[in-house]
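$ ./design --mode recover --in tokens.txt
reading tokens...
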């Protein structure tokens, strides 16, 4: 579907997007290519940034999604923010989509790392947004697919500093909660939470629209420590780490199991995610309220019909961006879709 102007429908309100896999430091698997049918399965293409208006840290363009007419989606949104995002969203967030969505296929375990909060990002990185994120597990391979989330017990600041200084990978990883996962599981990852994704875990990742990572375990992953701390000195960077232990009650508040739910609309994320992003798994014919959104089709085929704009054909592996101007849209057909949206305008604290 083209995004060029049309005398009857105006600019396209829903647009299919190709794979967008900026090079990363870690290896990917074959799951993105298998889902899409035409994705890039190169060794260091483990992330597909879908409908991205965010660049990789320190890069001018890498990470951005390009529309079929050649424009960056970022520039299109900046030019017409209310059409893309809606007036209420613009009043709350300006011309930012307030969302970054990725497909992430971990071909190897990711390093132990964490992300800054909004307050830290405002103070030290000149950004309104930190990087809270959430994982929707859509596939696994291997005999023991796991993620690692939060320290099991409280950890003293000098202990974290020592682990990082000596690059004690076994201590860092061993201190975290190891959580087996299967498709349909979702994990909310508040800013500051030390975490790692295990090999063979394929996720749809929602996050705030930044590329801020504090890489605690950089040895064996990055060339040196220089790129591990976002240009900050190490003591300042380590202020981002939540050193509190996550007991069962905390973990249960962050993790959901939705595999057995098959209603037309399955809310996927923990309640604490609502101020940062929203996600539902949709089955069959479903109405969508007006909103900027990202669609990732996990299975089946069908169409997206909207009040304003031509129908968009969808099939397994399709990814699409939907503008607020699509109005009340409807998914039709035998589809299973992950529908990602920014937070509602009134949800921010």
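writing sequence...
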């Amino acid at each position: 579907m083209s995004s060029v102007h049309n005398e009857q429908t105006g600019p396209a309100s829903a647009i299919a997007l190709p794979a967008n896999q900026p090079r990363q430091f870690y290896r990917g698997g074959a799951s993105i290519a298998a889902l899409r049918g035409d994705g890039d399965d190169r060794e260091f293409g483990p992330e597909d940034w879908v409908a991205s208006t965010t660049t990789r840290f320190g890069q001018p363009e890498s990470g951005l999604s390009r529309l079929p007419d050649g424009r960056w989606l970022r520039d299109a949104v900046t030019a017409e923010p209310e059409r893309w995002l809606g007036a209420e969203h613009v009043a709350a967030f300006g011309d930012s989509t307030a969302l970054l969505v990725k497909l992430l296929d971990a071909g190897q375990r990711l390093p132990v790392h964490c992300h800054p909060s909004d307050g830290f990002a405002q103070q030290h990185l000149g950004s309104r947004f930190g990087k809270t994120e959430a994982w929707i597990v859509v596939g696994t391979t291997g005999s023991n697919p796991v993620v690692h989330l939060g320290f099991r017990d409280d950890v003293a600041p000098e202990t974290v500093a020592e682990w990082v200084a000596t690059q004690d990978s076994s201590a860092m990883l061993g201190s975290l909660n190891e959580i087996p996962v299967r498709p349909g599981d979702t994990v909310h990852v508040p800013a500051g939470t030390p975490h790692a994704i295990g090999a063979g875990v394929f996720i749809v990742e929602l996050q705030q629209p930044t590329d801020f990572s504090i890489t605690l375990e950089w040895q064996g992953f990055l060339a040196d420590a220089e790129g591990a701390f976002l240009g900050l000195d190490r003591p300042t960077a380590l202020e981002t780490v939540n050193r509190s232990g996550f007991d069962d009650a905390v973990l249960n508040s962050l993790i959901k199991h939705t595999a057995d739910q098959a209603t037309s609309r399955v809310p996927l994320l923990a309640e604490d995610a609502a101020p940062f992003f929203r996600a539902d798994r949709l089955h069959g014919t479903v109405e969508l309220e007006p909103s900027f959104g990202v669609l990732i089709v996990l299975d089946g085929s069908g169409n997206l019909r909207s009040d304003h704009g031509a129908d968009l054909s969808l099939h397994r592996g399709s990814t699409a961006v939907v503008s607020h101007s699509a109005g009340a849209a409807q998914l039709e057909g035998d589809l299973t879709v992950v529908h990602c949206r920014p937070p509602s305008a009134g949800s921010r604290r």
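exit 0
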